[in-house]
Specification:
Blueprint (H helix, E strand, L loop, with lengths): L3 E4 L1 H8 L4 E3 L3 E3 L9 E5 L5 E7 L5 E7 L7 H15 L8 E6 L8 E6 L2 E6 L2 H5 L1 H12 L3 E6 L3 H4 L5 E6 L6 E5 L2 E5 L14 H7 L6 E5 L5 H9 L2 E6 L2 H13 L5 E5 L2 H10 L4 E6 L11 H18 E11 L6 H15 L3 E8 L17 E7 L2
Parallel strand pairs: 1-4, 9-10, 14-15, 14-17, 15-16, 17-18
Antiparallel strand pairs: 1-3, 2-6, 4-5, 5-6, 7-8, 8-9, 10-11, 12-13, 18-20, 19-20
This protein binds S-adenosyl-L-homocysteine.
């Protein structure tokens, strides 16, 4: 019999709001009998069944709901849930050959990330509940997806909050350092073993695919990583300056340019803040700029400092644009709300003395779905701005 955990009246109200997480403070009784990673029954204070959830012993988030029916969670259940993830994606990403197949809460599968790169899988089990299912899930991945390799990327800090180790290992096949991925008209090499995230920023895929509609003339891709925006921009622009602080990322960008026979991208290793300031001091101008920095506000207490950083970057970028030029600007900080991001862009525009139109609002690609009941799933915010003057 699985352990039964009773919620406090406050916990029950929260549960009714639809969120998939239950915090430890909202547990009334029963946690002491639950094993780490076990699927438990969640009950009201009088013992009526509410849902089934993964239990985490160490985390503040004690419970993550996986099913609202009472029926047992067996192999067929998990096969069905994984199949649904695959079916939901259908041909959405064609002709791209990479996508996120399972996106944790967004796919009603808390604690599980599965990314697919041209037949190769990268997997992350983020909570003890997913870890406990490791043998079963690996078996199902092979049955359902017939992968050419499976890389386990557990080199990520969030596992620590769950009391889980850092670990990087191959579960099937050899480490994949150069998987060729098609993203619409461009190709890039993904390093599934050492690359950022699981090899690429798949959450920006749809935004990159649409970006060249706005691009022309001289472009700047700041925080370019391995040049995924720059490759798309290069096809529409005369020249693209691509700035990143990472030497290895820029080396891969050069390989990606060669792979696409692209010759109009100029990589520059620099701190983007300093690079933008120098370009401004030199009186340089651009028709198009992308700003896609790493998350500055990893927690709420970083928010003030992070906002200052975003404001400075955007002010400088707007100042560098010619009249009619465009800025695609992003924040991947969950803690910075869409409204707060727009507010700081408004301030940046005022400081740069530019009138600015908002042409598009962007978010993460639909293979990283936002689950309305779990606001934490909405982290990527972006806008395409146009300098009106
Ligand atoms: N736009 C990319 C993802 C960018 S990720 C894509 O679509 O694939 C953020 C990048 O910012 C990383 O490559 C990191 O090396 C770089 N970075 C972090 N701090 C930086 C800084 N101060 N100046 C320049 N680059 C920085």
């Amino acid at each position: 019999m699985p352990a039964a955990i009773k919620l406090s009246p406050k916990g029950l109200r929260w549960f009714r709001g639809g969120h998939l997480w239950i915090f430890r403070d909202d547990i009334l009784a029963g946690a002491e009998a639950a094993q780490n990673g076990e699927v438990v029954r969640i009950e009201s204070s009088v013992g009526s069944f509410l849902a089934q959830a993964f239990y985490s012993q160490k985390s503040k988030i004690a419970l993550r709901i996986i099913r609202w029916e009472e029926a047992i969670l067996d192999r067929d259940f998990f096969r069905g849930r994984l199949q649904a993830c695959r079916d939901r994606r259908g041909n959405l990403f064609s002709p791209a050959t990479a996508c996120r197949l399972v996106s944790a809460e967004g796919d009603l599968f808390p604690g599980l990330i599965v990314d697919h790169y041209a037949g190769h899988l990268v997997v992350q089990f983020l909570i003890p509940g997913a870890e406990r299912l490791r043998p079963l899930l690996l078996d199902l991945f092979q049955e359902l997806f017939s992968p050419r390799s499976i890389t386990l990327r557990h080199d990520l800090a969030v596992r620590e909050m769950e009391g889980l180790d850092q670990e990087k290992t191959m579960l099937l096949g050899e480490p994949q350092r150069e998987v060729a991925v098609a993203e619409g008209p461009v190709r890039y090499l993904a390093d599934l073993w050492e690359g950022q995230k699981t090899g690429a920023y798949l959450d920006q895929q749809m935004n990159r695919l649409g970006i060249s509609r706005f691009a022309r003339g001289r472009a700047l891709d700041a925080f370019c990583y391995q040049g995924h925006f720059a490759l798309h921009l290069a096809r529409a622009c005369d020249e693209v300056k691509a700035v990143d602080s990472s030497g290895p990322a820029l080396a891969r960008l050069q390989e990606n340019c060669d792979l696409n026979d692209i010759k109009n991208v100029a990589p520059e290793r620099a701190n983007a803040f300093e690079a933008l300031a120098a370009l401004e001091a030199q009186g340089e101008k651009f028709e198009f700029i992308v700003l896609d920095p790493p998350p500055f506000a990893k927690s709420r207490k970083d928010l003030a400092r992070a906002s200052k950083g975003y404001r400075e970057l955007n002010r400088r970028a707007l100042a560098l644009l010619r009249p009619g030029g465009h800025l695609a600007t992003y924040s991947c900080s969950y803690n910075l709300s869409t409204e707060a991001f727009l507010d700081l862009l408004r301030e940046a525009a005022a400081e740069a003395r530019r009138q600015v139109r908002v042409l598009e609002s962007h978010t993460q690609a639909p293979d990283h779905p936002l689950l309305l009941s779990v606001p934490e799933t909405h982290y990527l915010k972006g806008f395409v701005l146009e300098v009106a003057d």
